[in-house]
Amino acid sequence: MQCHYCDRDAAYAAERGGVKVGLCESHFRDRVEELTESEGLEALREQVDVTQTDRES
Predict the structure, then answer these.
(1) Whole-number CA gyration radius for the chain
(2) What is d(CA 15, CA 4) in angstroms, rounded to the nearest whole number?
(3) 3-class SS letters over 11-47
(4) 18 located within any domain
(5) What is the domain range of residue 13?
(6) Tell me: the pLDDT tens digits for 6-55?
(7) 6 belongs to a structural domain
(8) Predicted model pTM
(9) Quick one: pLDDT band at residue 2, thresholds 50, 70, 90?
(10) Domain count across the chain
């Protein structure tokens, strides 16, 4: 699968409503950064049960 934004191979794929979109590593990071800077991350947290566990190093 190819990245939705460029010609590189997709490292990640997301699917919604039967439509699958691929993202390369670089564009995936860009999208995550955009989410963290917007209210979208909070909306995503509300939709997904995010549980953080403590790990011993």
Answers:
(1) 14
(2) 12
(3) CEEEEECCEEEEECHHHHHHHHHHHHCCCHHHHHHHH
(4) yes
(5) 1-28
(6) 999 999 998 889 999 999 999 999 988 887 787 767 777 777 765 655 65
(7) yes
(8) 0.60
(9) very high
(10) 1
